[in-house]
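Changelog entry: the Nucleic acid-binding protein record was regenerated in this release. Current contents:
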Amino acid sequence: MGMTKAALVVADAGPLIHLDELGALDVIGDFSAVIVPDAVWREVQQHRPQALSHPAVKLLRQSMLSASAQVNAVAALYTLHQGEREALALCLQQYITLLLLVGLVPDTDRPPSIQQLAYIHD
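Regenerated structure tokens:
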């Protein structure tokens, strides 16, 4: 019996960049696809372009339609950057339960609680 791939996931730039730096991007290859918002794609392209063409990971670039009031409130509360805002909005718009947001090194200019944000829906 073959192994089935897990559902879709949305990624922020941090996990894509840092996993590629470690040569470990294939750990997210078990997802059927990783949705990458436009702003995140541009950030990864600027800092670690080779991460966008890993053969074991299916990355899907996607535009965000618009951020809801809920997303804007969370973005203001946690000082989210554009890529994080788009990733959160895509999770909510497409009912995706997992957001890859956790970086390896906590940001020093933001509350540490944003590093805990992962599950969006029950």
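The chain has four helices and four strands.
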